[in-house]
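Input record (Table S2, row 308):
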Amino acid sequence: MRAIAEAPSKVILTGEHFVVHGAWALAAALPRKVRVEVSESSHLRVISDRPSSSKTQGLHPILSVVEAIGREFSFAPHLSVTISSEIPEGAGLGSSSSTMVAVSAAISRIHSLGFKASDIIRFSMVGEKEVHGHPSGIDAAACVIGGVILFKSGNAPKKLSFKGRRSVLVAISGMKRSTRRLIRSVEGVKEIYPSLFMGLTEAASEVSLMAADRLAAGDMEGLGRLLSFNHAALSTIGTSNRTLNGLVDLALSLGAYGAKLTGAGGGGSIVAVAPEGKEKSIIWGLRRRGFDAFRADIPVSGVRSWLE
Ligand code: PMV
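Output record (PMV complex):
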């Protein structure tokens, strides 16, 4: 018998970094997913199709998640864990969170632990802390809950309800970056300019609440304006760079309503929203310039697991 879990990727629409300092942020689960298969074994082994995980270092956070669950529920973690993923790594699309979430959900399934969403998030965070140092938890929450969520540390995530589908565009810069390093450098900005940083955090929080409202209403133009506003704040705290600014400008010049870096920045991806019917030409325009770009329809469901 084996347990399978599939978790979606995610995109942060507004509020990243500021969410680590108490702001509301808005995130959506995306269709590209990770699949994890877990079965009983004579010892713990993790097999992954990810290039970074082929190094032992890349597997450490996953092993920590498995061991933490084993410790709390008093079983020896003798499991075989196989990971296959469609999520690009280091692109700010939640590749590592999605993997931890799927691993936690699959273990809960195989050992009949009955994990609730909050348990899966808690155990996924064990591995995320190893990767990021000081994560807010938004990535894991988006992958577990699915749909579109408003997230603030210490509060239960709020899932948006809206009728119909929306789409977002994602373009991957191809630049790898370290979320841990970027979180630290933002902490440095906060230390130097505490009151300015507090003002930006409050503004980002307000932007996220307004963006949730615009998205639910289907006002993509209004949402786009808020994305661009948020990009300016993220640039102010040093998380953008010339490549990301260039990608944002390119998306806007191709007709997007608004665009911004998504996730930690310093590389990774941008997210944009566009008028209906314009998405295809914007994606082709981005691809012609050599960027991997795709349209994602939302909402998509959160982590799912089953036995086979
Ligand atoms: O590494 P990413 O792209 O998933 O970024 C995570 C978002 C941050 O706000 C930078 C960190 C966090 O945990 O909230």
